[in-house]
């Protein structure tokens, strides 16, 4: 069945080949591709448009969406719902929550909404988008794909200096106590904020699935969180990162990817990961399944993410933080 597939952060390293895979292998779908900067001054958006131009008759549009602005996210969700209701777009087939943010070279940044930037872009904005658009899926259901990482599990990343953990007071996740970090701490604390956002994504995914399954009108929508692997050609390694990591990506990780894969089987290219993400999104891979995946293999997530009590608390707080209530979503349970 033809449907609309939303991809956030669509000009990213993983997303651009994912878009190509979607529009060439599944051309009956319509792609709505969101980017923070939709002008031709943005080299990554220009690259996305160039790739689209190479695909004849591609059903795709590039739309501006700033995930650091929850009001903009709400307006975008409202416009998509209105387009679907008016048959200007087909019903949703999938939402791919691909966008993320990290900063490994500076202190925590606060958005205009008052939240720490990494958690807002990576988690909160997607919570708002998904909950507000559940009513735009058809009765046959669809898929929500959340991008996570092995970094959500303490001890699994070689870049980890401080282990990820959701604070007992969850408000500290989104509104951390402002302290002046030493420059030597920027990398470790920035990476921890990133890992915590990935932990929140996985934890929230389990709660979302539980409430979807209980809702007779939405039970055919399935949510998955995927660790797409360590991407040797990702520009993330060269964005808001220290010089050491920048040069490591150029002179070690990319040239020796095949050898590194012997030590880390998840080491691969963005194109390989993008294809997996799309195959999950269109329900070709693991149709109807829910849960956490490493590449395309069903896997266990971290013990903390599997705690139902933690899931319940994070679910309630996430809805509170983004201001979603029963009147804003088709889901029968917003606050458990």
Give a description of the structure:
The chain is α/β, with parallel strands linked by helices. It is 40% helix and 13% strand. Helix 1 (15-25) links the parallel strand 1 and strand 2 (30-35). Helix 4 (117-133) packs parallel to helix 6 (186-214) and helix 4 packs across helix 10. The model has no long low-confidence stretch (mean pLDDT 93).
The description of the largest β-sheet is: 8 strands, mixed
| Beta-strand content bin | 5-15%
Count of DSSP-assigned helices = 10
Q: Distance between the terminal alpha carbons, to the nearest Å?
A: 33 Å
Q: What share of the residues lie within helices?
A: 25-40%
Strand order of the largest sheet: 3-2-1-4-5-6-9-10
Number of E-type strands: 10
Q: What general outline do the C-alpha atoms trace?
A: globular
Find the structural class using helix and strand composition: alpha/beta
- Flag low-confidence runs: none
Topology pattern, helix = H, strand = E: EHEHEHEHEHHEEHHEHEEH
Radius of gyration: 19 Å
How much is the average pLDDT?
Answer: 93
Oligomer: single chain
